[in-house]
Give the backbone structure.
Amino acid sequence: MSNLKDAVVLVTGGTRGIGRACAARFAELGARVAICGRSQEAADKAAAELGPNVKGYACDIASAASVDALVDRVTEDLGTIQVLVNNAGITRDGLLMRMKDDQWNEVIQTNLNGAFYACRAAAKSMLKARYGRIINISSVVGLRGQAGQTNYAAAKAGMIGFTKAYAQEVASRNITVNVVAPGYIATDMTAELGEKATAAITEQIPMKRVGTPEDIAFAVAFLAAPEAGYITGTTLSVDGGIGM
Ligand code: NAI
């Protein structure tokens, strides 16, 4: 894993939570890391806190044009992207019966289409370099479903199919594409659930604790390593056993 020194890494949505922990881990391993958030201010603030190996960019991952511009800028500033972590994601929960088109579309557009845009934008230079590591952050919800999250489950399950198809397209070019499927991880996203719901979920987790962003970052850095070059199209669950 030490071979990530000077690797150019792009983590989408790295301003907080899991993405931020991934950026911190990559920076610790000596990589040159780009993170993005919806505002330049948030991205700059997080990058400053993460240290000199991390640079912040503004990007709306739900916009193809914005993602294309992001990849161009990162490539210009840091060099060809070798590791892409598709982490940016949102939830807009609600029962299907009452789900608005906007709620559905925003989640698909950000969580699934955003990963497609980033892969497509980074593909050309990765293919040219005949090297790449792509890690898509899905969820246990994409594997098991979850009431109130049909939009999110569809996007996260979609990422898994997308990963398997794209992994087959680029395997011969030494590019791996894998999924990390986190369980319940303590971040701002899950803080919305409140204490009572979190306690009920924790009870169901075989490890009897919610995960940390660092638990996910460790798995992401593993799949991002040059040594992980024979692992592709797979889904690595990091969930304390709740997905079993
Ligand atoms: P978070 O809400 O703390 O952070 C999400 C990040 O994505 C933020 O940096 C935000 O700025 C960024 N983002 C959201 N929409 C964006 C957009 N349109 N353009 C650019 N950036 C955007 O979430 P958390 O918990 O860190 O989740 C990260 C990923 O992990 C998400 O894809 C989430 O679905 C997934 N995940 C999280 C789990 C959890 O328990 N926290 C469990 C399973 C998966």
